[in-house]
Request: fold
Amino acid sequence: MPTERSYHHGDLRRAVLTAALDVIAAEGPAALSLRDLARRAGVSHAAPAHHFKDRAGLLTAIATEGHSLLAATLDEAEDLRDLGVRYVHFAAAHPAHFQIMFRPELLRPDDSELLVARERTRSMLRTAVEGHGDDPVINFMAAWSMAHGFATLLLSRNLDGLLDGRDPEETFEALAGVMFGPVGPASTG
Reply:
């Protein structure tokens, strides 16, 4: 049976993560169960627990992976505005990750890999706003709130009528220009 062979080759973890992302994208995180994911992967109901222990462990792995993917996306940003555009692009390209990454009640709050991955993305955002305005904490919250809010509204289809065929990333870039004016480099080193 191919799924058993895949499991023995170490692909079960990825298969469960992929199936979980599909379920989350289609039905939301509430529809997720390890038993259903095991069935989808063609393994025993206990097999996913070897990799994730429980549902919170699985969701924490998804959030950690999401933060790593987001950091890789943000790493290429040229300036603060581009960083926001890349944030919105990430959310649109990885909606299931995005749904989970910012839901602390679903995650293991003390998971060391999650904490490191989350801090990397936050640090990139903080660095990008340095030198913009008088209060770096307020600037960080304003920039993150704007990008995250736009991405959330986009994914929940609340902007459909307002976008009216406009490219979401270009629209966000225009909004960032209105809110923050000209921006400089995302980082100095």
